[in-house]
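PROTEIN DESIGN WORKSHEET
SECTION A - STRUCTURE
LENGTH: 914
TOKENS:
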């Protein structure tokens, strides 16, 4: 029996897919063409190959803007019951109306049209590229700086379980937080909480002298505990992590120090000397640790055990000598809040006297029920906590401010781009109308116009990246940044910047393209296209621009005033005409001070020379140290900064005693248990006449108390942004002199620095001369404020420039629409001034609305910022008045060119029919 004929048929799933995706009015025709083509291909290449080609043709129709698209023009739906198959034997060719807008040919056409259009409007393209590239440069720099801050200390494993301890004291005057800990605290923590995974003390300060084979180096030697390598995951290049710091004579050095001190030799097992002549010790290298990255709170050149510190034996049981920081690592099953609650009995056990003192002052528990507590700060937040970082951190508010400024600049550039694009759209209205009349779909027009905007954004972005690369050294020099181009290649940062670029492309390019694609073809070709009144969106964009510009201008002025206030605020000493010279570690400071005095004794340009242990301001050595002491005096809790000085210190700084006397060489006992205090110290002790009083702890029954021989006015030993404490000054023959101060005559300022440099080669040939003027050092205290002021100044200038550019575009658009109105007004007798006022008043209203929003917001933000300073300016209302007036005048000046130009046009030309 013959088998029935079985005709080849295409894949059923492909037909079902096409039925689901294809618009009904095209389905009949497409299926007929595809089936006919399938039959021809079966004869040519076989059934199997023909089925594959059929499936491929169907898949090609799975494209955006084709799926379920409505019929356009006069196309009529085809009845589902109509069986209309073409009898032609030609191969299948898609219906022109189904052509995908992103086919290669179409993309090529879009790019060609975009380049041709932009070339015809070179001025428009240049303005947009310049505006966007400048915005991208500012954005990349500020985002990069913020990114580095936000990634501080995030490279450690288990960083969510690493915490720094700090003291909280709810003093009635002000709640206090301090990250300085006493030496016995860590052993007590490990004894009372054996479940702690690790705990380590870290004592750091100025650089130490390191000697290797007769060569000397100044290196930052960190004094810590063995658990340091258990808490922090700095890679150990060589050595055993478990025992590298097991012995008191072990030292772990960084890769950089290994290369500097030992060259190509393997340093493990070799010895080196660390310390000065009176405190030098030999250590054995037991490991090499990788260099600490820039975004690490903890920096080092070498690690040794904290038991080797100068004052360890004296203070190892002293709970009042706070000298270092402590880091702990919690077990995985213990969270921060739980452990802090467990620390409450710990604080009551070891700090009963502090609690009693707070109760005597009338202190009340805080919201967590604490008068005094030991609390934790997560490692990821330490960099932003200035209180526990001893004033060395970067407030998170500054990071957010930088990001906010970058966002403002970018948003203003986007608004400017949108306004320019919309203004230009009226010149292209006929082009859009003709394209629509010829059958172009709204989606196709949108993609084409958006593609032009994307091309401009891409060029602006690439130019911005190139400028960032070229300007990076200048940015680092101007803002003391440590940015590298390699930081821009980090995956996280690349993701952020690409996200910003995509967002700008969608926002700045998408909205104008959408508006132009909506133009009605009939109205455009009849010349009736118009926007009767400024729309809400456009007005909002203009207001937003001037809100941000005015806000940045106010912040810039107030920040500059605060910076000037800090710089000019009396510090209690004369900083002018004083040169500060860091001694360094390779020479004995006392010997150098003596030689310098002998050499310059008869120099009339030298008024006074003295030495000290603490620099004033921030010198070229970038070292800042602080020593404090605390004790109970007649039941009062007393705390002060300790300052080692030498003879003539008060004379060098022009500080005159208000009671008693200065240290005097004729009194042999002045260098033994004699001190000079500030007036606030006397007040804290409750002594109206403290001269002659023995100062010391009530519990100290030994004959070791110090006698007060003088009282001086309060002066600032540290920045005005830091907590000001009373000061206790003393002499010592044992402690090293770190800095030498030289007061010179005003007439010899120019040449004295060179003279001192030459003399320094004679008195301290082993040490580099890095002297600076004291007023420069004091200015360096406010480096963060100065950088913020500079960034705000630059940002506000760019914001104002871009805002004016956008306002110019809107003015051009409005005036172009009102050309005939201007002509009619002139014919009716309106004067030039009346026309200018009429055209400008709408813009002035928008600027006034922006000022109403911006000025109160600026006041609130800057008041919050100023509250971080113990001493700050009072915000003047004239700042806001000046910014408001300037904004109005700038707006008028921006639109005046277009308004005057339009008002001077002959009304015959403006009223002439097109």
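SECTION B - SEQUENCE
RESIDUE ASSIGNMENT:
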């Amino acid at each position: 029996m013959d088998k029935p004929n079985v005709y080849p048929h295409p894949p059923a799933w492909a037909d079902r897919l096409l039925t689901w995706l294809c618009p009904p009015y095209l389905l009949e025709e497409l299926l007929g063409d595809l089936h006919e083509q399938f039959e021809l291909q079966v004869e040519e290449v076989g059934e199997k190959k023909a089925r594959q080609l059929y499936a491929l043709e169907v898949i090609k129709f799975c494209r955006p803007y084709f799926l379920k698209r409505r019929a356009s023009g006069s196309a009529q739906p085809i009845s589902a019951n109509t069986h209309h198959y073409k009898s032609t034997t030609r191969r299948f060719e898609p219906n022109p109306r189904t052509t995908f807008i992103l086919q290669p040919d179409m993309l090529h056409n879009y790019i060609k049209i975009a380049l041709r259009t932009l070339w015809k409007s070179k001025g428009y393209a240049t303005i947009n590229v310049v505006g966007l590239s400048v915005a991208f440069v500012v954005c990349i720099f500020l985002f990069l700086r913020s990114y580095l801050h936000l990634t501080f200390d995030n490279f450690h494993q288990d960083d969510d379980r690493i915490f720094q301890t700090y003291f909280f004291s709810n003093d009635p005057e002000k709640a206090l937080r301090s990250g300085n800990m006493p030496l016995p605290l860590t052993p007590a923590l490990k004894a009372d909480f054996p479940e702690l995974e690790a705990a380590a003390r870290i004592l750091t300060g100025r650089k130490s002298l390191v000697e290797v084979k007769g060569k000397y180096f100044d290196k930052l030697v960190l004094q810590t505990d063995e658990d340091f390598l258990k808490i922090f995951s700095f890679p150990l290049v060589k050595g055993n992590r478990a025992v590298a710091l097991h012995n008191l004579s072990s030292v772990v050095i960084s890769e950089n120090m290994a290369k500097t001190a030992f060259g190509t030799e393997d340093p493990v097992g070799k010895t080196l000397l660390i310390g000065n002549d009176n405190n030098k010790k030999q250590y054995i290298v037991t490991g090499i640790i990788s260099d600490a990255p820039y975004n690490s709170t903890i920096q080092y050149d070498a690690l040794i055990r904290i038991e080797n510190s100068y004052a360890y034996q004296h203070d190892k049981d002293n709970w009042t000598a706070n000298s270092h920081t402590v880091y702990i690592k919690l077990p995985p099953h213990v969270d921060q809040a739980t452990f802090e609650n467990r620390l409450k009995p710990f604080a009551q056990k070891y700090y009963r006297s502090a609690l009693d003192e707070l109760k005597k002052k009338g202190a009340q528990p805080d919201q967590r029920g604490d008068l005094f507590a030991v609390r934790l700060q997560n490692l990821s937040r330490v960099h932003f906590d200035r209180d526990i970082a001893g004033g060395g951190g970067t407030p998170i508010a500054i990071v957010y401010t930088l990001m906010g400024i970058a966002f403002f600049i970018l948003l203003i550039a986007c608004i400017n781009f949108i306004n320019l694009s919309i203004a230009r759209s009226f010149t292209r209205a006929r082009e859009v109308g003709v394209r629509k009349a010829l059958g172009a779909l709204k989606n196709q027009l949108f993609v084409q116009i958006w593609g032009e905007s994307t091309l401009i954004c891409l060029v602006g972005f690439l130019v911005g990246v190139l400028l960032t690369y070229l300007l990076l050294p200048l940015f680092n020099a101007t803002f003391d940044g440590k940015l590298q181009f390699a930081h821009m290649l980090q995956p996280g940062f690349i993701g952020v910047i690409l996200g910003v670029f995509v967002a700008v492309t969608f926002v700045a390019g998408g909205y104008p393209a959408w508006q132009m694609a909506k133009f009605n073809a009939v109205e455009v070709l009849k010349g009736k296209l118009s926007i009767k009144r400024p729309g809400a969106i456009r007005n909002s964009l203009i207001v937003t621009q001037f809100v941000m510009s005015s806000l940045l201008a106010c912040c810039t002025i107030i920040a500059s005033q605060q910076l000037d206030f800090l710089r000019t605020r009396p510090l209690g000493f004369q900083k002018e005409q004083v040169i500060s010279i860091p001694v360094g570690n390779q020479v004995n400071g006392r010997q150098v001070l003596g030689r310098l005095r002998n050499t310059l004794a008869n120099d009339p340009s030298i008024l006074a020379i003295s030495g000290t242990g603490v620099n004033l301001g921030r010198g070229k050595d970038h070292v800042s140290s602080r020593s404090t002491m605390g004790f109970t005096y007649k039941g009062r809790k007393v705390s002060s900064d300790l300052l080692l000085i030498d003879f003539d210190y008060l004379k060098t700084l022009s500080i005159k005693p208000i009671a008693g006397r200065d240290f005097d060489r004729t009194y042999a006992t002045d260098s033994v248990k004699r001190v000079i205090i500030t007036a606030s110290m006397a007040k804290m002790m409750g002594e109206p006449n403290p001269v002659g009083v023995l100062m010391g702890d009530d519990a100290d029954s030994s004959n070791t108390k110090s006698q007060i021989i003088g009282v001086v006015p309060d002066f600032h030993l540290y920045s005005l942004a830091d907590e000001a404490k009373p000061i206790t000054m003393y002499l010592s023959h044992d402690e090293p002199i770190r800095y030498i101060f030289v007061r010179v005559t005003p007439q010899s300022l120019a040449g004295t620095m060179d003279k001192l440099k030459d003399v320094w080669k004679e008195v301290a040939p082993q040490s580099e001369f890095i002297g600076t003027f004291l007023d420069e050092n004091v200015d360096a205290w406010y480096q963060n404020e100065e950088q913020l002021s500079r960034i705000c100044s630059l940002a506000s200038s760019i914001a104002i420039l871009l805002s004016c550019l956008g306002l110019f575009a809107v003015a051009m658009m409005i005036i172009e629409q009102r050309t005939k109105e201007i002509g009619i007004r002139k014919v009716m007798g309106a004067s030039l001034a009346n026309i200018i006022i009429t055209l400008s008043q709408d813009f002035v209203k928008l600027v006034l609305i922006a000022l109403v929003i911006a000025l109160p917001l600026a006041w609130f933000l800057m008041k919050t910022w100023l509250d971080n300073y113990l001493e700050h300016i009072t915000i003047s209302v004239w700042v806001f008045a000046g910014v408001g007036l300037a904004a109005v005048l700038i707006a008028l000046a921006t639109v005046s060119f277009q308004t005057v130009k339009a008002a001077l046009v002959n009304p015959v030309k403006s009223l002439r029919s097109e």
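SECTION C - NOTES
Confidence is low (pLDDT under 50) at residues 65-101.
Residues 1 and 7 are 18 Å apart (CA to CA).
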